Amino acid sequence: MLAKTSRRVIMVWPKPLKAKRDYIEKLAARENVSFIWDSEVSAILGDNGVSGVSLRNVKDGTSTDVACAGLFPFIGATPNTGFVPASVANGDGRHLNTSHGFATSDSRVFAVGAVRTDYGGNIVQAMAEGVGAAEFASRLLLH
Ligand SMILES: Cc1cc2nc3c(=O)[nH]c(=O)nc-3n(C[C@H](O)[C@H](O)[C@H](O)COP(=O)(O)OP(=O)(O)OC[C@H]3O[C@@H](n4cnc5c(N)ncnc54)[C@H](O)[C@@H]3O)c2cc1C
How many other CB atoms are there within 10 angstroms of residue 112's CB atom? Predict the structure, then answer.
């Protein structure tokens, strides 16, 4: 979207990109888009507005300044699972592990969609998982 309205877009990313290959190929094919890998923004430069960013290479620690007129932070989506009780196994500290019927380690707690370990990432899957968990939970309540 930024590439449609900006003269030049530089994408800075510290790790291998996990986006769908199709998305990456479409982005890479745009003439006004370039990538700076293994790097993260360590400072925003400018007095009254953005004039550039300082980038830190996460592999060798070196810093480089890159001129730009603006930046658009997109730093991922972390599942909001902090409120989930400790009794529920938490795979990587953020996502919830599930077994049969999308039940977590606490059989009364279900997890579906983006909060779940091994979620595939499509909204159709999230909806289907919601239906599956609801059916499983209703069977538990009725029997
Ligand atoms: C930029 C972008 C583009 C995408 N494009 C596509 C696409 O083209 N096709 C596709 O299939 N998928 C796409 N996805 C992925 C898709 O949006 C997600 O996989 C899907 O929305 C996950 O559904 P979910 O219900 O698990 O989570 P969410 O849609 O994130 O819903 C979780 C909801 O819970 C609410 N919530 C959080 N914490 C609390 C709380 N404590 N109490 C109450 N409510 C709470 C949140 O506000 C949110 O409304 C895209 C995602 C992004 C970020």
Answer: 20
| DSSP string of 99-120, one letter each residue | -GGGB-SSTT-B--GGGBTT--
Ligand 1 binding pocket mutation candidate from 80, 81, 127, 131 (most atoms within 8 A of CB): 80
- Quote the ligand 1 centre to 74 CA distance (angstroms): 15
**What would the mean pLDDT of 29-33 be, rounded to a whole number?**
96
Give the Å distance between the CA of 128 and the centre of ligand 1.
14
> Domains (ranges, CATH) in the chain?
1-71 (3.50.50.60), 75-143 (no CATH)
Supply the pLDDT for residue 1. Answer: 86
- Global model pTM greater than 0.85: no
- As a whole number of Å, the end-to-end CA separation of the chain is 51
Task: Determine the Cα–Cα distance for residues 108 and 140; give it in Å rounded to an integer.
Answer: 9
Atom of ligand 1 nearest to the CA of 80: 38
Whether the per-residue pLDDT at 129 is higher than 80: the answer is: yes
